[in-house]
TrEMBL record:
This is Glutamine synthetase. It is an enzyme of class 6 (ligase). GO terms for biological process: glutamine biosynthetic process. Its EC number is 6.3.1.2. Residues 62-151 form the GS beta-grasp domain. Residues 156-586 form the GS catalytic domain. Transmembrane segments: none annotated. It comes from bioreactor metagenome. Keywords: Ligase. PANTHER family: GLUTAMINE SYNTHETASE, TYPE-3 GLUTAMINE SYNTHETASE. The keyword Ligase applies.
Length: 696
């Protein structure tokens, strides 16, 4: 492997490359556009496009694509070559500024939730110059936003960019109040830790359920699971290690700051963490990371599972979304400072997050709700469906003393005031890590742990940015009018803590006691996607997103529909797959085994009339009962699928999928797992959990 610094970002048309290849004034104009968030002038675009093309061709590229993030949650691209015909019948390689900044993919096949009917299929992609162009698979990829002919947003990137803008504006207002005159921009930063499973490709191919749905729909508990906890941070196997080496190499080429990798709790589970960066770029990078994980795994004869819950009874996969705010000078606004002044600012930003999370629990839950993630959240596994914040004992006691209930400074027993020299320097409480909290403060950032492993991080961060922007704007509204800033700030902090401390919980979030306690505190417990998603369309939500121009009412309604439809489709595919497996594979296999048992018993009897055939008899009896139970439950599921069409509207349909279809699948699964335990290995047509989990 070559030198890391040499390969890092070698496939990215980044700042260094631009500085080197663009005329000075073009480079300046480009940078200015980005700083001011304006659209690119066509003359500048022409020069940038040409330089980009030359650079890409030198790297062996012949095609380019506008790379975008439609509502499918994965990325989309349509390749065009640089080739252009000349009048004398030859070809030249061309790439214009117009092609760089605007594309017109046929948008009719992407989910729009009724925003765009197929007859007006036109959609536009527009370059997002804040994210660098890069080369992937010998294609020049230009990160773009995607919208319809009428201007409605059809992708995940645009609202994310808008939410960052909203947060920037409101955070700057607040900083100004603290006398900050140097900060010109506030961005949010994200470092998403990605969990995934690796299994052998041959084993994967034999599991129809994984092939069609990304997860196992059945599978008896293996003799060895994760109970020994010997996989977490364990030695990485040579095959996985070779995979990780190549993976890192590929990610580095794309300028992705992949840094840590380790084994996770479950067998075959691993994690990759990048160094944090600007949220928009982190989001693009995470999409590329997921794609690269799949591609490199395939090269190494493995399959990478990104599903949130590939195996029942074994830990699922999430994405820990580490989030913070940073000034253009790199000051982390969630970093407790060393002076009372810094700490007052820190407390205000902290309180904004606390208030946002409490007031918009519903939207945070909405942002992570999918069919796959429902298996994790609210299951017997981290984190629960109830949103709460972990702050740690130290920070919580600081807040309590600000509120005036207890004296933080035990020695002097004095109440703390903000902005004067009374606030102590906070000891950084990073050791006391609560792994069960869905939203944990980890020293200088928040870690939102409810995000599913497969999910694009655009949605959760769009929500996080917008709700915090909202609280900051309310704070700024009050403080800007204050005669006595310090007094008003004190009061604001006190009130905020008093009114929203119910969201703070430092205990074990997995316990039943917490569920009871949370209910007492009036916290939401939205257990499933059909329960959560309708909150997205609430008046409160529409008001919020429209206030900051992140999403319009129409866009919100269409997104609500898209997400619910996707939920229904996913469960529908799972149900059809399970029916197919039961009828075509399991029932025939078990029947064949029953026949062998009967034949054995018969020939034993023929050989010796009074021989004992109890084993065959009881097995035949048990398997026959289970097989008929499976058969009738399969028919029941088939009938339920026919009832779907009687539902009115997508919300009711989603509930039906949850309460009837999914429930019927669970019942089938119980029978199948029982059958698996009692069927001879040579008759069971699928690799078992043990064989899958320990296949690499
Ligand atoms: P751990 O949580 O495992 O102790 P770290 O604290 O090193 O590990 O960071 C975990 C993740 O959080 C990494 O992806 C890291 O880049 C990210 N992170 C660290 N600081 C910030 C920040 N200010 N903003 C966003 N993400 C951050
Ligand atoms: Mg972590």
């Amino acid at each position: 492997m070559s030198n890391i610094s040499e390969i890092f970002g070698s496939m990215v048309f980044n700042d260094d490359v631009m500085k080197e290849r663009l005329p000075k004034d073009t480079y300046k104009a480009y940078k200015k556009t980005i700083m001011e968030g304006k659209s690119l002038d066509i003359n500048v675009a022409n020069v940038v496009a040409n330089a980009m093309k030359d650079w890409a061709i030198e790297k062996g590229t012949t095609h380019f694509t506008h790379w975008f993030q439609p509502m499918t949650g994965i990325t989309a691209e349509k390749h065009d070559s640089f080739i252009s015909a000349t009048s004398d019948g030859k070809v030249i390689m061309e790439f214009s500024g117009k092609e760089l900044i605007k594309g017109e993919p046929d948008a009719s096949s992407f989910p729009s939730g009724g925003l765009r009917s197929t007859f007006e299929a036109r959609g536009y992609t527009a370059w997002d110059p804040t994210s660098y162009a890069f080369i992937k698979d010998s294609v020049l990829c230009i990160p773009t936003a995607f919208c319809s002919y009428g201007g409605e947003v059809l992708d995940k990137k645009t609202p994310l960019l808008r939410s960052m803008e909203a947060l920037n504006e409101q955070a700057l207002r607040v900083l100004k109040l603290f006398g900050d005159t140097t900060t010109t921009r506030v961005i949010t930063t994200v470092g998403p830790e990605q969990e995934y499973f690796l299994i052998d490709k041959e084993v994967y191919k034999k599991r129809k359920d994984i092939v069609f749905t990304g997860r196992t729909l059945f599978g008896a508990k293996p003799p060895k699971g994760q109970e020994l906890e010997d996989h977490y941070f364990g030695a990485i196997k040579p095959r996985v290690s070779a995979f990780m080496k190549e993976l890192n190499n590929e990610l580095w080429k794309l300028g992705i700051l992949a840094r840590t990798e380790h084994n996770e709790v479950a067998p075959a589970q691993h994690e990759l963490a990048p160094i944090f960066t600007n949220t928009n770029i982190a989001c693009d990078h995470n999409q590329l990371t997921m794609e690269t994980l799949k591609r490199i795994a395939d090269k190494h004869g493995m399959f990478c599972l990104l599903h949130e819950k590939p195996f029942a009874g074994i830990n699922g996969s999430g994405k820990h979304n580490n989030w913070s705010l940073s000034t253009n000078d790199g000051v982390n606004l969630l970093e407790p400072g060393t002076s009372p002044y810094d700490n007052a600012r820190f407390l205000l930003f902290l309180c904004a997050v606390v208030k946002a999370v409490d007031e918009y629990q519903d939207l945070l839950k909405v942002s992570v709700s999918t069919a796959g993630n429902d298996h994790r959240l609210g299951g017997n596994e981290a984190p629960p469906a109830i949103i709460s914040i972990f702050l740690g004992d130290e920070l919580t006691s600081v807040l309590e003393s600000v509120e005036g209930e207890t004296a933080y400074d035990k020695e002097f027993k004095r109440e703390m005031a903000v902005g004067v020299d009374a606030i102590p320097v906070f000891p950084k409480d990073t050791t006391d890590r609560n792994r069960t909290s869905p939203f944990a403060f980890t020293g200088n950032k928040f870690e939102f742990r409810m995000v599913g492993s497969k999910l694009s991080i655009a949605g959760p961060n769009m929500v996080l940015n917008t709700i915090v922007a909202d609280e900051l704007s309310r704070f700024a509204d009050i403080l800007e009018k204050a005669d006595d800033f310090t007094a008003e700030l004190n009061k604001l902090l006190k009130d905020t803590i008093k009114n929203h401390k119910r969201i703070i919980f430092n205990g074990n979030n997995y316990t039943d006691e917490w569920v009871v306690e949370a209910e007492k505190r009036g916290l939401l417990n939205l257990k499933s996607t059909p329960e959560s998603i309708p909150y997205f369309s609430s008046e409160k939500s529409v008001t919020l997103f429209e206030k900051f121009n992140v999403l319009s009412r129409k866009e919100i309604y269409s997104r609500t529909e898209i997400v619910l439809e996707e939920y229904c489709k996913e469960i529908n595919i799972e149900a059809l797959t399970l029916i197919d497996i039961a009828k075509k594979d399991l029932i025939p296999s078990v029947t064949a085994y029953i026949k062998e048992l009967s034949d054995t018993a018969n020939s034993k009897k023929a050989f010796m009339i009074d021989i004992d055939c109890e084993t065959e008899k009881s097995l035949i009896y048990k398997l026959s009962l289970l097989a008929s139970s499976l058969y009738s439950k399969t028919e029941l599921l088939e009938n339920k699928l026919l009832e779907v069409k009687n539902c009115n509207g997508v919300e009711e349909t989603a509930y039906f999928y949850r309460n009837s279809i999914f429930a019927a699948m669970q019942e089938m699964r119980a029978v199948i797992d029982e059958l698996e335990t009692n069927t001879a290995k040579k008759y069971w047509p699928f690799p078992t959990y043990g064989e899958i989990l320990f296949s690499v």
